[in-house]
Amino acid sequence: MKKRVLKSRGLRTLLMLSCVYAGEAVQLPFTASAAVVPSVDQTITLTDTPGILNDIDRTHTGDKQIVYIVDADGTSGRELNFAGDKTFIHNKGSNSNQNTAITAFDGAVVHFKADGTELYATSNNSNTSIVAVVNTAGDNHGSTINFNSANATVKAEGVKTATGVYTDRKSSTNFLANTNSTLHAKSQNNDAYALLNGGATNISGAVNLHANTAGGDAMGLVSHYEASGFEFGRDNSGKITAAPDSALKINAEATSGRAVGIMANAGGDITVNGDLTVNAKADGNAYGVWAQKSNDSVWMADTRSRANLNGNTAIRIDRSANDSDFKLVRALHASKGGFIKVNAEGNQNLVQIDGDLYADGKGYTDNSNLSLEISTNDWNEVEIEIELRSAEAGIAPMGGSVPTDGSSYIDFVMDKEGSYLHGAANGNVYITSAAGTEWQVTSDSDFRELYANGGRIDLSHQDHYYKDTNPYQKMSIETLHGNNSDFLINTDILNDNGVTVVKDGTEIYHGGSLSGNVYTYANGSKTVNLNTPVSYTRYGDFIHAENSNGPMTHNIYVDDDAFKNEAQVEGKYLKFARATDDVTFKPGATQVSQLYSYKPVVLQTAQEDTDADSKLVDQNDFDNLQWVNSNNRDWWITGYDKIITDDSKVPAAALAAAFAGWRYWNENDTLLKRMGELRYANDDGGAWTRVSRSKHTRGGDYGFTNHMTSIQIGYDQRQAAENGVWRRGIALSRDEGKSSYNKGKGENTNTSLALYGTWLGDKGHYLDLVLKGSRLRNEHETYGKYADSGTGKNWAASISAEYGRKQALNNANWYIEPQAQLTYGHLWGDSYTTKNGFEVTTDAMNSLVGRLGFVLSREVKKDTQKAFRYYAKASLLHEFCGDDQITLRDRSNDDRLSFRDSQGGTWYEVGIGANMLLNKNTHFYVDIEKSFGGEVKTPYRVEGGIRWEF
């Protein structure tokens, strides 16, 4: 039997500390032809038919190198099944060089089917390396191990290298659907690998990987292609595939070495179609996903290393141990021809990345190395050099052109709301952003293409890893695409000294001093030798778009203390961008308080005859700048405009919504809508109720959308009079509305008591008089950084007179009813304090509305107990008053704002409806209408009512 020697500096004595192994046997304790597999306390016999072992529930201990080894000897159908409630196998031998819990060899198939499976291989012997807790191997006949337990735990712990599950070339390990598997690999002074794949690994269930080491490198998921000499094409070896319904969680932590969540190496192919979560933390460099190198021993086949992440993806690199020593913090890293695709298949998955992106290219080459050797005596010998950089994604989004020469590159797509990237991007990186996504640019970024199709690109990164000593970043984009993205930058237009930083490749040093190529940290406790350091003085963040893909406009927002403090900046010119003449930066407003925002004043000029970097000059120097004749343009900030915020307008909009609802319920109310066709009534008295639902909208600064529900009940008595009858009554109503504003929302209520008298003349005349008192309550709240809320309360009263006459048009029971109405209302003022301490004072308001209209109706079954009529109506209305004023005062600094508003003007209403007698004593009515023109529009109002007579 061949002896397998696994060694490395990357995977030092690779596979030495392991629990499960699928592949060729390692120092087997029996001959290749053995059919009897000894264990510590039992014998398992494999016959020509599959050997079945059920209900294993024992603890196996001792100094065995391998507790269970299943050798099929190339014979098909040799299977070992572990079933029942629990399978527990523990190899804690201390004398063997390599410990393994179970090995499947040369075509064997092992099934873990018990409800619970625990496979351990541990050792505290400093000379012991544990090779695969679970191990599959076999050069001629690949072996298979299937995890089909509801819960499975694999644990490898030792002094040297530890590997949880190892799958060898041509073999496979499968984590089946509806299962939960957890793999631990922990080493005291060497490398740890939770799952190492040289064959095929398929994940359909939930898999949790943990790699932890105190003295080496920790890697969660590793795949590499082991070619067997020179090959014309590759097989499925070196591939890891996670299904769409899978859930893969990876944690890698190294105390003194490097931590890598996922590594695709030497032709390794990793595809994750399900949910993926990666956390990596190290005192050295840390990486989320790393792809590098191809396998040159395979001809006429694409053997570039790749990682395709096609599901919801969350990668977080812990920066706590890295920032102080400038260690690499790479969420995605691609080098030497490897590539990574993140959400590049158009599926719109949630992508949340905390860490940098890097891919060789655009003048950057990764010189860090992690070499890995796997020597497998009579199989093959593969040497792997691993560069630790950042990540990449596969295909350039939106039709971009990624390298076709085998270079590394990154295609990173954020196209689902809530996706984000917190980090820098350098090299052959292609990034897509969309509406609802955010990129916080935490350091200088120099990359290929940005498809800015909306979303927020924040160079100020106030919320993530901001440092006062390094407040400014430079973004260099080879080609800019897209439209309508928001760029946020830091500037300091009054600081003539600027901030000095030292840049060496992709790394930025700040706060210290540079002497030659030696950089000394600020506290003098540490020095570092740099390669090609360059010193810069910066006055703000800077955007450089070397090329653009057609005309585009993006928004620019500026964070500058001078603007916040309303300082005098006249005569200052600060350059913040250079782009082609197709690119326009439109200034956006930055809110600095609840009352005010500021918007930068920007100036576009020809290209200045200097490098593309930030610059601050005064008026005299600006007038003497030298300009270059090119298609590039420089962009400057020259000042700011102070703007009233949408937040401050919300109380005024809320008052407008409350006033509009109150006016609509009072002035626009008519006898027909309130009580239907009273001429059908012959009672001495009656009760009635009605319910309505309506929508009111208004645009502009004080715009709102208000949805109202109203209910009213009433009672009246009939009294005979000369030439007609009077009905005198009382009514109680309640209106409730929900409003939305430009930057807020609210609720409003109106409780009213009304007295009315209605005269119905014998010749079709009528007069309707209404006196009403109301109590309004108006709650509002605003959103965002300066969120606030408040409640206003107002008393109101109104009086209305309506006159009309119903006249027959012909003998076919068609009627027309001209109408006229005049309503006066008064809304008393109010004063209240918001949650944030702002005083809001509203002045009293008056309303005087006149209405002229008509109703065209047709009677059916007239003069019967089933009388019915349907109608159409139209009205012209005009508000003669409708002005209001509201004042806000910030009690902290006595800043004041006053707003004047008017809802005067003319509008029109049209509607249809019907009135009917259900029986002698019950009258039902329905009315539908909408309005046109005017300050406030009513897209719809639907009302129904019923009257009972006594």
Provide key terms for this protein.
15-stranded parallel sheet; 4 helices; 4% helix
Give the SSE layout.
Blueprint: E1 18-22, E2 36-38, E3 43-45, E4 51-53, E5 66-71, E6 79-82, E7 86-91, E8 100-105, E9 109-112, E10 116-122, E11 134-137, E12 144-147, E13 151-158, E14 162-167, E15 172-175, E16 180-187, E17 192-197, E18 200-203, E19 206-213, E20 218-224, E21 239-242, E22 247-254, E23 259-265, E24 269-272, E25 275-282, E26 286-292, E27 306-309, E28 313-317, E29 329-335, E30 339-342, E31 351-354, E32 356-359, E33 370-376, E34 380-386, E35 409-413, E36 420-422, E37 425-434, E38 438-440, E39 445-453, E40 456-458, E41 474-482, E42 486-490, E43 499-504, E44 507-510, E45 513-515, E46 518-520, E47 527-529, E48 534-538, E49 542-548, E50 552-559, H1 561-564, E51 572-580, E52 583-587, E53 590-591, E54 596-608, E55 615-618, H2 619-623, E56 627-644, H3 646-666, H4 671-675, E57 685-698, E58 704-721, E59 724-741, E60 744-761, E61 765-782, E62 789-805, E63 807-808, E64 814-827, E65 830-833, E66 838-842, E67 845-860, E68 868-879, E69 883-890, E70 895-902, E71 905-919, E72 922-932, E73 937-949
Parallel strand pairs: 1-8, 1-14, 4-6, 5-8, 6-9, 7-10, 8-11, 9-12, 10-13, 11-14, 12-15, 13-16, 14-17, 15-18, 16-19, 17-20, 18-21, 19-22, 20-23, 21-24, 22-25, 23-26, 24-27, 25-28, 26-29, 27-30, 28-31, 29-32, 30-35, 31-36, 32-37, 35-37, 36-38, 37-39, 38-40, 39-41, 40-42, 41-49, 42-50, 49-51, ...
Antiparallel strand pairs: 2-3, 33-34, 43-44, 43-48, 45-46, 46-47, 51-55, 51-56, 53-54, 54-56, 57-58, 57-73, 58-59, 59-60, 60-61, 61-62, 62-64, 63-64, 64-67, 65-66, 66-69, 67-68, 68-71, 69-70, 71-72, 72-73
